[in-house]
Design brief:
13 helices; binds manganese (II) ion; disordered N terminus; binds phosphoenolpyruvate
Length: 455
């Protein structure tokens, strides 16, 4: 992630059409334009330096083009919702280490380069199925992520506060700084592959990783003894991604790249449009169609072939490989029927989209004790269904998008070291959706590596 030295003009971008979204239907936004701190918060953000550089963003588009061509695999992972307090060195490093471990398992198991990306350094805004949350007799505005309001179920906390956008920027900046230090400063050196397991509690997935790491270490030392130059292994590219939900924030962080004169969202390298905001005539599709970043769109089980054709037309009119990624989140019961017509529609539209599976969001259930959870077996079944569909159609299963953490939480049920509902009271930490813990994440990486290696 080297900064290629280009300068992005500071200040909110002036570019034809960038404010068109304001005239279109928009959902999932706080009504805070009249808040006394709204304009000053937007002005503050507009004057901030970009979090990512246009050259890095373009490089990611090229990496995703190789995924589109079946020459690499995309791994996206991180919290459902980041929190300001959760941006500590320990937690960020555990998450980055876990993603690096998963990537190593995939690279080694499937002999494919892996494009590594965190749902990190900007994943603060959450779409909600309802505007209000009711507990007993009390109804309050829903929690929309810490970039908008607070999680506590009090009237005060739930009032949207635009200054939170500035805190989200600052937290993203600190997070990305640490991620850059880790991934470029030697921590991600492949020669330290065994170190990444240190500090995690031992369990079957952990032990399996240990033996993979030992094999890699032996191979690396062998090649080194043969005189191979491993300087390149010292650093790794690691990209940031989040849902571009809160358009006041994204607009304020859009900059014009001085090399190309084109607008880029500089809040993260990759941004996606969620299942609830991918309306073809809505503000989100319009705004993101106008920026250069590689884009994702979540596709749920109700997506039609014509939605796919239209999304391709709107977001990737020039059919640039790497520009568009479809993130399928169908549910284990639906993926085998719902996905094939969409892949065919994209193919008929001459699109070279990247297909990614998000096996989390179609498999959410409520546990008997009230917690939102997912069964590891359902999650894995959706991954298998995704691979099966691509095998049948001769298309390429390009990536995996998961909600995960490096911490030893109990939020998803199952796994080889079984998590059950009784653990939720002590180890359920997510403010939003349940994440795979460290072991479950590694276990999933092994299963996916297997599916990639033996299609
Ligand atoms: C998410 O990724 O956390 C999310 C809300 O996803 P989706 O838009 O697929 O429901
Ligand atoms: Mn989620």
């Amino acid at each position: 992630m080297t900064a290629p030295g280009e300068i992005l003009h500071t200040g909110a971008a002036e570019y034809p059409g960038l404010d068109e979204w304001r005239r279109l239907p928009i959902s999932q936004q706080p009504a805070w334009q009249d808040h006394p701190d709204f304009q000053s918060s937007v002005d503050t953000l507009s004057a901030k330096p970009p979090l990512v550089f246009a050259g890095e963003v373009d490089q990611l588009t090229r990496r995703l083009a190789s995924v589109a061509h079946g020459e690499a695999f995309l791994l996206q992972g991180g919290d459902c919702a980041e929190t300001f307090r959760g941006a500590t060195a320990d937690r960020i490093s555990a998450r980055v280490k876990t993603i690096l471990q998963m990537a190593v398992v995939l690279t080694y198991g499937a002999s494919l380069p892996v494009v590594k990306m965190g749902r990190m350094a900007g994943q603060f805004a959450k779409p909600r199925s309802s505007d209000m949350e009711t507990r007993g007799e009390v109804s309050l505005p829903s929690f929309r992520g810490e970039i908008v309001n607070g999680f506590d179920f009090t009237e005060q906390a739930r009032i949207p506060d635009p200054k939170r956008m500035v805190t989200a920027y600052d937290t993203s900046s600190a997070t990305l700084n640490l991620v850059r230090a880790f991934t470029e400063g030697g921590f991600a050196d492949l020669r330290a592959v065994q170190q990444w397991n240190k500090g995690f509690t031992s369990n079957p997935a952990h032990a399996k990783y240990e033996s993979t790491a030992a094999e890699i270490d032996r191979a690396v030392r062998f090649m080194e003894a043969c005189g191979a130059d491993f300087e390149k292994l010292r650093r790794t590219e690691f990209y940031s991604a989040h849902e571009a939900l809160l358009l006041d924030y994204e607009r304020a962080l859009t900059r014009i790249d001085s090399r190309t004169g084109k607008p880029y969202v500089t809040s993260g390298h990759f941004v996606w449009i969620g299942e609830r905001t991918r309306d073809l005539d809505g503000a989100h599709v319009d705004y993101l169609s106008r920026v250069q970043n590689p884009l994702g769109v979540k596709l749920g089980p109700k997506t039609t072939a014509s939605d796919v054709e239209e999304l391709v037309e709107r977001l990737d009119p020039h059919r640039v490989p790497g520009r568009l990624t479809f993130i399928s989140r169908m549910g284990a019961g639906a993926v085998r029927e719902a996905l094939p017509p969409l892949i065919e529609a994209a193919r008929d539209a001459d699109s070279q989209v990247v297909w990614v599976t998000d096996p989390m969001h179609g498999n959410t259930i409520t546990a008997k004790n009230g917690y939102k959870t997912r069964h590891f077996d359902d999650v894995m079944d959706e991954v298998r269904g995704f691979f099966e569909v691509h095998r049948t159609l001769g298309s390429y299963p390009g990536g995996l998008h998961v909600e995960m953490t490096g911490d030893d939480v109990a939020e998803c049920l199952g796994g080889s070291d079984v998590v059950d509902e009784t653990a939720f009271d002590d180890r359920y930490e997510s403010l939003c959706d349940p994440r795979l813990n460290h072991k479950q994440s590694l276990e999933m990486a092994y299963l996916v590596a297997e599916a990639l290696a033996h299609p």
